[in-house]
Amino acid sequence: MARRRGNGFCGSTEHLVNRRAFLGGTALATAGLASDMTSLDVLRTPALANQLRRRGKRVILLWLAGGASQLETWDPKPNRPTGGPFGAISTNLEGVRISELLPKMAQRLEHTAIIRSLNTKDGSHGSAARMMHLGRRDEPNVTYPDLGAVCARELGQADSKVPDYVSFYTATEGRGNALGQSGFLGARYMPMFLTTNTKPENLSRLETISDLDHRERMDLRALISQRFAAGRDSNTLDSHNEAYARVRGLMASEELFDVSGEPQWIRDRYGPSLFGRQALVARRLVEAGTPFVKVSRAWWDSHGQNFETHLELVSELDHVMSTLLDDLKSRGMLEDTLVITLAEFGRTPNINPSLGRDHFARAWSASLTGCGVKGGTVYGETDADGQHVKDGEIGAGELFATIYQALGIDHQHEYFVGARPLPLTNPGIEPVSEVLA
Amino acid sequence: MRNDCIGKGCRALWLALLTLPILQGSGQTAELLGPEITIAEVVDHYLGAKLASAGISPAAVAAPATLVRRITLDLVGRPPTVHESREFIASTSQQRRAELLDRLFADPGFVRHQANEFDHMLMAGGESIREYLLQAFGDNRHWDEIFRELLLGRDDDAQQTGALRFVKTRVSDLDKLTNQASVVFFGVNISCAKCHDHPHVSEWTQDHFYGMKSFFNRTFDNGGLLGEREYGLVKFKTNFGESRQASLMFLNGTVLEEPASKDPTGEEQKAEKAKLEELKKKKQPPPAPAFSRRAQLVEVALQAKEDNYFARAIVNKIWHRLFGVGLVVPIDQMHPENPPSHPQLIAWLARDLVSHKYDLKRLMRGLQMSQAYARSSRHDGEQRPDARLFATAALRPLSRYQYATTLRMGSMNPDRFVASDKIEELQKQIESQENAARGFASQIEQPYDGFQIGVTEALLMNNAEQVEKEFLSDSGDSLVGKLKAIEDSRELVEVAVWTVLNRPPDEQEIKSFEAYLARRVDRKLDSCRQLVWALLTSSECRFNY
User: Fold this and answer.
1) Are residues A2 and A151 in the same domain?
2) Does A70 share its domain with A10?
3) What does the DSSP 8-state code read for residue A191?
4) Mean pLDDT of the residues in chain A
5) Which of B402, B185, B542 lies closest to A239, judged by CA?
6) Which residues of A fall within a CB distance of 8 Å from B7?
């Protein structure tokens, strides 16, 4: 078959060796993989230097499900017909004003880049949410990994003892809308899903078996499987045994999901809301080494009573996000942790007769804080009424390229699926260098 | 250039399809082995020749216990019962493999497994058309007939109900329908060619992609029923910005003649719309067109001779299913830049399939009679030979249904599957286990090339209450229930290993397992559960090897 390899293909044995060395010789037996470009090269890894550079980089995605209003958050239009009842307040950045519903964040923008110029062209919940998780659209025959899966793979370690992708979804979104897609990266990078329960499924041992028996039956399983593996070799076989080998470690991480392990005063700071508790779990997870945690808050879809909804939800966001940032900062983690606020789209500047705002993907906002971000910046601008992007228009692809770059991941990095090179962002997409540190 | 490639369909592929004589032009066909030779001999001839020229000796034949498990999983989607395994191993017949194959092809489980496999292949885990497939395979309809029904089936024919879901579920996105029909029926993935650079191909054309799309462009959904118009052409912009009109052209370059069509006037359009609304209300299908482009696709695909994409694609898929690796890899990249490992073999098999009216059973049986199919999956030497030489059998992860059924049958009291004098009862029992397994199967991921088993499965198997309830209960119907009553630990281990792994334990296993049991002598039930769990979750149980 054709063996014309694109630039950036590095299934070289040298790199495999590096990786093995780096992982301390774990069970990633991949002999033969490099010579067979027909298999998905998910085990292909960048050079050691990159690995080290990225080590310790983390992401917390605050997902504002249903579509938060940019006008009541990062891009207020006070005293305009589209402005609504809430005002804008000044911030600790000169000349930058955000919604008065974000008073705490207004005093903490020095590590944040606000992006006011997203035009993502899709105003339908399902497909827009997909796109804003993937940074692009699936193709008829390619399902792409989402941001969490890519980060799990690029920032995590294959034999990690902590989960590498955790996703809290909300009952309102439902499991169906809570996207978690590892696409061609495979099930290894699927998220561990949680909803109102802050503890993941199947992470704790049933009471019917003792811890010792649980461990020893695992050893017995490993013994049978090792004997079977002798003289046989396949990546799928390796993944089977790796998955089982990770179980005990993951189970030991169960306590990370339990906020009672935190001092009371910290729990008090995050507050009693579910969103606050989940944000605290997210902090515990990234602190222990989980590279990607998504916390969803719903439901922002305020077709009616937009202002009541946002008064409640933005105020909560302001509190939880500012607490999270303070907490990360005081632990010295903010420079390695990227906190993102994002939704599937924003909301119409026009206020409808039910005092609601509808779906709006033409000119809306997101924020990036911490790792790799040039803090205290505002990128892009909308017109006076927020109807159009006036300056710095970007789409989902550029936003994702920016996120990858902030994390030290080359956004043009290519995966090979079969013989086909698939870059992390579509060809021609560039990051927004203005918001990168 | 890269950018242009995304979303448009790569011209290179389509041109290359035309220009390179990979589809076994006359020169090669003349050299093919004669049609009278058996499939198995042909397989071994071509694979053997390549192995010999690579200086590699293939693995020995697999142990009988392995072989009966492999064949049973492949044909009926479940492991053999202990009785079936022992019977095969004990058989002294020269024809024991052929006898097993014949029995399993006639087993109702074959139709169910075939339906599961094709449902996944055709619908990729989306909406299921299993009911239709059960009927089609149950009637022993051949692949060309099924193809015809999938594209042209009639909603008012009870035999074909459901077949059209293939088109209906995709018709709202014609690019997707074009792509997926090409992948499923012709083994060519348009999207994967989108951003391949083929620098040596200087002249590019998109005509083939839009030519294929033209077969579907008149098809539409009208209230859940499919209609097809008699007018409408596909126009597209080339990468050079030129506007072009696609002709009705198949992959092999055949351009079909068709009656001239005229776009309707505004008035006619209004009348058509009103009529369709009325039919929608009455839940009647739109009238069939005098000339159907979709029907032309079926005809042209089946008329193809040496460049038979349709036959080659299904040969490769069936080969991939039975050997773990396709003759063309990946299976949806059957384009000229990507030649088969054994060009003459695939050409011979495609020719044989066409001359035997697309009888997939004949193809499968022939492949399974080969020496290559029966090889051991173990390689004890230094360097493992390239998988595409087929020197050893591949390790194939079980499909979700195979694994869930294997877990269920492997955790049942084996006495429940003893062939009593009533074979129907045993078959009913097995079918009910398969049905009961479907719930658990939904939690297992369906494998694909390069499949990675995730930690979710391992956590599920470790800590889910469902696993304990379904597979580790100690009722009289369960394996654990049987084991706990066995006094002799050696016998206990033998029963457990036979039931779960379909083979006898070796001495070292007996020793290790007995030691495990001995350490828990005061908690026999627990120890039986743990032993069964360790066997069910082992890699040996998870794979067809």
Assistant:
1) no
2) no
3) P
4) 86
5) B542
6) 139
Same domain assignment for residues A379 and A403: yes
pLDDT of residue B305: 77
DSSP 3-state of B36: coil
Answer whether B116's CB lies under 8 Å from B109's CB: no
Residue A360 in domain: yes
- Spatial CB neighbours of A46, under 8 Å, sequence gap ≥ 6: A10, A15, A410, A413
The span from the CA of B261 to the CA of A290, in Å, is 61
Residue A342: beta bridge partners?
A63
**Any chain B CB within 8 A of the CB of A212?**
no
Q: Of the candidates A326, A307, A407, A342, which has an alpha carbon nearest to the alpha carbon of residue A114?
A: A342
Q: How would you write B486-511 as a 3-class SS string?
A: CCCHHHHHHHHHHHHHCCCCCHHHHH
Last residue of a domain, one of A54, A71, A97: A54
Q: Are residues A5 and A116 in the same domain?
A: no
Q: Would you say how long chain B is, in residues?
A: 545
A43 inside domain: yes
B54 token code pair? 């690579």
Residues A180 and A101 in one domain: yes
Count how many residues are written for chain A. Answer: 437
Per-residue burial over A284-308, b = 16 or more CB atoms within 10 Å of its CB, e = otherwise: bbbbebbbbbbbbbbbbbbbeebbe
- For chain B, what are the domain ranges? 397-544
**CA-to-CA distance for A33 and A20, rounded, in angstroms?**
14
- Residue from B325, B452, B519 whose CB has the most chain A CBs within 10 Å, to mutate: B452
pTM of the model: 0.80
Cis amide bond preceding A299, omega within 30: yes
Helix axis angle, B207-214 to B11-19, nearest 10°:
90
Nearest to A427 among B3, B380, B387 (CB): B3
Q: Is A142 touching B (CB cutoff 8 A)?
A: yes
Nearest neighbour of B191 by CB, restricted to A32, A139, A209: A139
Min Cα–Cα distance to chain A from B454, Å: 4
Contact A41, A28 (CB under 8 A): no
What is the rounded CA–CA span in Å between residue B323 and residue B329? 12
Cα separation of B151 and B168, whole Å?
A: 10
**Residue A103: inside a domain:** yes
Nearest residue of A to residue B190 by CA position? A141
Q: Is B370 exposed, middle or buried (0-12, 13-18, 19+ CB in 10 A)?
A: buried
CA-based nearest residue to A75, from A434, A356, A341: A341
Helices A147-155 and A125-134 pack at an angle, to 10 degrees, of: 20
Name A420's bridge partners: A417
Domains identified in chain A, total number: 2
Residue type, A10: C
Interface residue B456 vs chain A (CB under 8 A)? yes
User: Could you tell me where the DSSP H helices lie in A56-158?
Assistant: 103-106, 125-134, 147-155
Triad A235, A240, A245: Cα angle to 5°? 120
How many beta carbons lie within 10 A of that of residue A211, not counting itself?
10
Q: How far is A188 from chain B (nearest CA, A)?
A: 4
The answer to whether residue A393 sits within a structural domain is yes
Same domain, A301 and A340: yes
Phi/psi at B290 (5° precision): -65, -35
Instruction: Write the single-letter amino acid at B544.
Output: N
pLDDT tens-digit profile of B291-350? 999 999 999 999 977 778 999 999 999 999 999 999 998 888 887 778 999 999 999 999
Expressed as residue numbers, the domain containing A22 is 1-54
Integer angstrom CA distances of residue B32 from B29, B43, B342: 5, 12, 12
Q: Is the pLDDT score of A7 beyond 50?
A: no
When comparing pLDDT for B158 and B478, which is higher? B478
Q: Which residues of A touch B179 (CB under 8 A)?
A: 140-141
My answer on whether A266 and A384 are in the same domain is: yes
> Hey, which residues does A62 pair with through a beta bridge?
A295, A341
Q: What pLDDT score does B30 carry? A: 55
